[in-house]
Amino acid sequence: MTTVNIISLNKTYPNQSAPVLKDFSLSINDGEVIALLGPSGSGKSTLLKLITGIERPDSGDIQFDGSSILNIEPNKRGAVLMFQKSYLFPFLNVEDNIGFGLKVQGASLETIRAEVKRMLDLIGLPGIERRKSGQLSGGEAQRVALARALVTNPKLLLLDEPLSSLDTSVRMNLQEAIRNIQRELGVTTIFVTHDLGEAMAMSDRMALLLNGEVVALDKPENLFHRPRSLAAAKFMGVSTFLSGDQLPVKCEVTKGSSPKIFAIRPEHIRVQKDGCENSMPGVVSDCVFRGEYVEYQVTMDTMIVRARMPMPASMFPHGERVFVKFPREYLFEVQN
Amino acid sequence: MKRFTAYSLRVVLYLFLVAPLLLFVAYAFSTRWFFPQPFPVEWTMTTFQRALNDSRTLSSMAQGLWIASLVSILSLLLALPAARVLGLRKFRGRQLAWLLLFLPTVIPPLAIGMGLNILFLRIGLAGTIAGVVLVHIIPTLPYTIFTLSSSFARFDENYEFQALALGASPWQIFLKVTLRMMTPSLVVATLFAFLISWSQYLLTLLIGGGQIITLPILLFSAASGGNPSTIAILSLLFVAPPVLVIAFTARQLNQHGNEIREQY
Q1: How many residue contacts between A and B have a Cβ separation below 8 Å?
Q2: CATH number reported for the structural domain that contains residue A60 in this entry
């Protein structure tokens, strides 16, 4: 349906010195879901505002299917939004809320009624046309908001943390529902979140944002297992970084101008009672039982290591002397 | 015992509010009610009918309603944009804008009226409906702006962004979203403007210059005349529109209040 090209966008708000978006580029394929993951202030929401036309970029271009949309009125762009709050119009019932977009675009009443019914079936809430928006639960309201956004057959769906105010169980449910509906309609989607798990579960590719720049862009599984840069690795939950001389193993450390940095995921670090080859001694300084795994913090000579041991595992109490092993096959190199 | 006390307190309060009106009703619909008699001896409609048949009464009411309606509409039109900016935006000089807009509530209307009288005489607005409407907007505007801006301060512009992204034009957004969300406070603001204009005596007298006769003007001259029946009848007519308007809107307001509460 739509490919989206975002080409070197720059945006600085007045009265602020630092730019919100710096030379920001991103290409999204037709029907793809891109997750934008980044801390608050990384420019995620600003990007959505630029795409919908609420704000204008200082320079750069946004293209749908190869043609620029910057000079198209915001209400003619075909980019719809869904926020953390549903923003259903409180004075309209469910049917009129979903039908709002079609109505303002001049669709006939029969078309609206048929389309609303189709969307309600799609979101799994048939027959609630007459309900008031105040009578819906949080999850239902977000489903209706999704239906309202998608009924206009948009070119691009923008999701701005749509699930962050919901309970975990409802959230899981809705993640699946949104993903299925998106696949069925094949609508190109940008999904903004700060939840790593959600970003990985929902997206075809993930873009990691930091200070208005894309630090990494790849499939979730690639980013998870082998993030290329230090910043990307930190995003993906890696907290252990070793320079060449800290390694207990002799990796192929080529003597270059800058020392190389190796990283390892916390799940791959082993905490054990006995020392062996490639292990280093340390003292358990924290131990948290999390159900599926035990989280350790081990203080060593030159660093503090965070490790996750899958259950069942023997629990080492606070203060216990242990050995930490970094299996060689799981060590990977990251660029600083 | 406690319930009885609360109940009787309520009755006393209502009586306190209603008693003057009851007195007016007694005077308006009776003849020859003199001191030792506790209640009117003879009830009749003739005094009331005579007052209504007086062309001055009806024309003053019509003129007052017409002026109050115009004032309500105009002051809403002026207040909406001002209230939106004051309620939603932070900007330099915001406090000053507030101060200027609220000045009419602290400056004595006599001072404003005297000054404007001279100005309006020069530009030919004195003694005209337009002049009176304009001068009535001065005391109404602070109330309409305040009512609407406090409502805008709680307004979330994301509702408008949603409508925009769904394809609504700026006009459609204004009519179908913004005005609908603002309805309760629009009703209250209109009510304020209407009542302030309807009961305005001093400014109407100064600018109207005796040519624009509204009910308060008639009522004041009757009050100095000293015929209790006439005063009572005019007072009842004076009170009727506000009471009717409030009775009508109270239900509306309640409904909208409930809708808003459901949302949050």
Answers
A1: 71
A2: 3.40.50.300
Please count the structural domains in chain A.
Answer: 2
Contact present, A31 and A1 (Cβ < 8 Å):
yes
Q: Do residues A147 and A82 both lie within one domain?
A: yes
What pTM was estimated for this model as a whole? 0.81
Tell me the chain B residues in contact with residue A91 when contact means C-beta distances shorter than 8 Å.
180-181, 183, 259
| Cβ–Cβ gap A52/B165 under 8 Å | yes
Domain boundary among A169, A204, A233: A233
Contact A89 B159 (CB under 8 A): yes
The ipTM is 0.83
Q: Which of A74, A100, A134 sits opposite B262 (nearest CB)?
A: A134
Kindly tell me the burial class for residue A307, based on how many C-beta atoms sit within 10 Å of its own C-beta (0-12, 13-18, 19 or more).
buried
Domain that holds residue A277: 239-334
Chain A residue with minimum CA distance to B255? A91
Query: Which CA distances in Å does A85 have to A81, A139, A184, B180?
Result: 11, 10, 24, 19
Q: What is the pLDDT of residues B205-243, one digit of tens each?
A: 999 888 889 999 988 888 888 788 888 888 888 988 888
Domain count, chain B: 1
